Amino acid sequence: MTDMRVLVSDLPLVLRDVSVFARELAILDRVSLELMAGAPTVLIGPNGAGKTTLLRVAMGLIEPTGGQVTWGGRTGVPPARRAIVFQRPVMLRRSAAANIEYALASANVACNEWPSRIEELFAIVGLTGLGARPARRLSGGEQQRLALARALARDPEVLFLDEPTASLDPAATKAIEDVIRAVAARGIKVVMATHDLGEARRLAGEIVLMHRGRVLESTPGSEFFGSPKSQEARRFIAGELLV
Fold first, then answer.
1. Which of 86, 101, 20 lies closest to 54, judged by CA?
2. What domains does the chain contain, in order, with CATH numbers?
3. Tens of pLDDT, residues 174-208
C-alpha cells in the first residue's frame, strides 16, 4: 500500500503575528513570515535579534505566546518532516556510525536499511570512512557534519540550522556550506541563521533580516545586498547595526 503521508507537506511554513515573551521581554515581536519550498532562507541580524527563537518556533519546539504557526496550512503538526541542528550539537558517546544508527532508529527506519542509509548519509556530508571513529574524537567541523547527517537521517522536508559554521575555520566552513548546497539540491528546504554576511551571500535564496525580535526585511538575497530597502539593512551590511 502506498504511504499517503509522503503527500502531506509542511510547506509553506507560515508565521502570523507570532510573539514570544520571556517574562515581559519580547524575544519575537509580532513576526509574520512565509517560508516556501526552494533555495535556502538565511536569517541574519545582530546578537539577540531573535533568530534562534524563530528557528525553534518554526521547528515546533517553542509554543508562541501569541500569533499562529501553520505547517502546510495545518496547526499543531508534529515535527516528523522537520529537523534541526543546533550551533553546538551534542555527540553521543558512540562511534560516528552508531550516532547515525540512533537517529535512524528514532525515525523508525527498518534495521536492514541502516547500512545503505549510513553509507549514503556519510557520502552526503563527506565523512566516508570515518564511521568507526568515536564521534567525540572528530574535529569540530566533522562533528557538525555528523550532526547534519543525523538530522538528514529523519529524511526531513525542512532542515533548520542555527549558526552551523560558528567558530569553524575556513576549510571546515566551506565543507559545511558544500553540504548545505547538496542538501538544498535534493529539494530539502534549508532555513539557517548566520552572523557571516559572506556566507549569507553565498547560500541565500532569500534573506530575512531580524532586529530586536522583528523581521525588518524579507527579500531575495541578490536584492538585499544590491539594494537594501531599510536603513537598518544598510547599517547591518556596513557592520554598524550591533544591538
1. 20
2. 4-237 (3.40.50.300)
3. 999 999 999 999 999 999 999 999 999 999 999 99
